[in-house]
Amino acid sequence: MDAPPRVALFADTFHEVNGAARTCREWHSFALRRQIPFFCVRWGAARGVSEEGAVRTLDLVRSHWAFPVDPDLRFDPWLMRQIEPIEAEIKRFRPDYIHVTSPGDLGIIGVILAARLKTPLAASWHTNLHEFAGRRVARILEWVPRGVRSSAARTVENFAMDRVCWFFARASVIFAPNPELASLLRRRTGKPVVAMRRGIDTGLFHPSRRTRSGAALVVGYVGRLMPEKNLRLLARVEAALRAAGFADASFQISGAGSERQWLERNLPRCIFTGVLNGEGLARAYADMDIFAFPSRTDTFGNVVQEALASGVPAVVTDAGGPRYIVRDGQTGFVAASDEEFCDCVVALARDQPLRQRMAAAARRQVENQSWDWVFEEVYAGYAGSLVSA
User: Fold this and answer.
1) Which domains does the chain have, with CATH numbers?
2) DSSP code at position 133
3) Structure pTM?
4) Of the residues 103, 139, 275, 307, which has the maximum number of CB atoms within 10 A of its CB?
């Protein structure tokens, strides 16, 4: 890669457990490995600037007024107090691009500084914030009539989508994780959109990590336990398995969030591992027989790739990014409805040879999808945007 652009990344999430934070951490690691000029602005436990060769990192601390927008994410309304010291560091770094990852507190500062310093702005879409907003409103209004609840959720979702698209339209180039979002963002913003997929550590996530013995079926899920993940469908999956004669089938769920209590009450044969990382997470995947991912709001689905790399066929919905990962009928199933989702899990439970064929195909599918490959594509997108500007 010749003379890559100098990028200043404003990461609203970095240390947390979510796909956007994972991508930012991997990007930071990629820049370190390649010694690419890279400046990462992130929230941390203590304020300070560090430097490792070509890579600089500015850690900031949110004020006491920061409020939660998610169990592990906060927004600082006093964000403007940070802008002068950040601007001084940005001027020192001299980026070719300022890159933001969301309309969070640091993302807003990034947009302001890009305009103030006349630096091209890039933005990458990581989370379907509009769908999250709609689903959470629907959950809050469970007590009102369905029609009123649905109307309120749609109104909130449409409003959030309008605001997020307005934010992303400030960018010179946008990065999107799947073709559907790329098309939507081109249409709504009129800006060029480049693919920004997700990589995987195929050495860590591998079928050889399996340690479980025994014939009883294990259906697994990894991810945040939040309303937008549609996790209550797993109770229907368990009922379908019982009705099909798999009374000894169990679930293994890794993650944390507000839905855990409901799942504990409604999935009696389930092991909750909490949040796992590293080899513990790799073993959890490999010990599954089927990966069930009922979310309809994920923009990509890092965890689906990790399951496939671990030799576990996946069942996903036909909404969002995971449907572009799973090859329907080859490495898992893409379900068009909740009923079909349950039927697909039962079909895999009944057919061990099919699971074995899909497991081998799943591993082959993702073997070459490294994070280096992902960020090489990103930097090629930067270079093309700079040339065309």
Assistant:
1) 7-199+370-388 (3.40.50.2000), 207-366 (3.40.50.2000)
2) H
3) 0.81
4) 307
